[in-house]
Amino acid sequence: PGSGSGHFGLFGYDPTDEEFMVGRGALEAADLEPGLVNKSDIVARFNFCTLHPDGRVADRRAGRIANGEEFAKIINENVKVSGYDFNVIATKGYRGVLVIRDTEGKLSDEITDTDPQQEGLCLLKSAPRANAKNIEAANRTAHFVNEFNRQVTEVLHSQKLVNGLVIRGFSRFPTLPRFDEIYSTHSLAIASFPFYRGIAYLLGMDIAHGCLSFEDQIQALKNNYDKYDFFFLHYKDSDCRGEDRNFIGKVQALEYLDSKLDEILSLGFDTVVITGDHSTPSLLGAHSHHAVPLAINSKRNRGMDESKQFDERTFSKGYLGTVYGKDLMMMVLAAAGRLAKSEDFI
Fold first, then answer.
1. Cβ(199)–Cβ(7) under 8 Å?
2. Taking the CA of residue 208 as centre, how many other CA atoms within 13 Å lie in the half-sphere pointing to its CB?
3. How confident is the model at residue 344, as a pLDDT?
4. What is the pLDDT of residue 34?
5. C-alpha distance from residue 137 to each of 102, 106, 141, 174, 321 (Å)
6. Rounded to 5 degrees, what are φ and ψ at 152?
7. Which of 27, 7, 59, 46 lies closest to 236, judged by CA?
8. Is the dihedral of CA 81, 84, 89, 95 positive or negative?
9. How does pLDDT run across 228-237, given as a tens digit for each residue?
10. In b/e form, how buried is each residue of 282-291, taking b as 16+ CB within 10 angstroms?
11. Closest CA to 102 of 148, 42, 24
12. Three-class DSSP category at 96
């Protein structure tokens, strides 16, 4: 699973349903400041990357640079593709969003990515997807992307660390069923990365802004505890260390989160869920198919499980068994005492 499909599943939106197959671009761009992206635009997520002289990708994350704004500025000022209007926006670290204006409806998001998804391979050429409904519009958009990427590598060729882009997830903004209306909640999303705030924004959750660190996120949780009845609190660092194949770093990231649990739980939540959107083993340095641990702590669940540790091996024998992410929200609502008997609706 990708992070988008993983999170959609956790919130009860079946990620195998075409309605909820939302491109990475829309998720990354959804929480940008008003005016930067319009509903008619096509958006894509990109990474600033490092390319070998022969064009192969050396580092998909450009050494995890802290900020890409200077490179976005270089691209916006120097790359020109006749007949197309676009904007490159640096979001967080090595991440960014490519916004392609489509005020006349002549373009299409049904095109393939340029990101080969691994080092050692050359950038891919964008092309219409096999099932594209409007081939002419898709060809026109793919032409722009390929010419855009060619010029980007030219204007950045003198840069050592950032000299290219890998682009993926071309999409438009969808209209999705609102989380709070489905589950009768009043929800707040607390995340430091734009992508996860974007997921929450598209689902209609309120967003806590200004959280640059996990300490900021915990403070936002405290400040808003009495204002909401559902919180999505996102922790990113362990995933980053897994992508970097940094096992010790991942252990340290998890130990840090563990050190903050008492502070979080002291607020007195009725029900607490701890899980992940996907597995990122440091051995692989990438997302994998493995099931992730899931803990639901509630007074209505006590005495049901004898697990004493939080890890995959222990939880594979746990009371909950193995469940699909899309079924989690019903289990959470049940643990919180928020479900009525089905007969009450007959």
1. yes
2. 27
3. 72
4. 77
5. 11, 6, 6, 19, 47
6. -60, -45
7. 7
8. negative
9. 999 999 999 9
10. beebebeeee
11. 42
12. strand
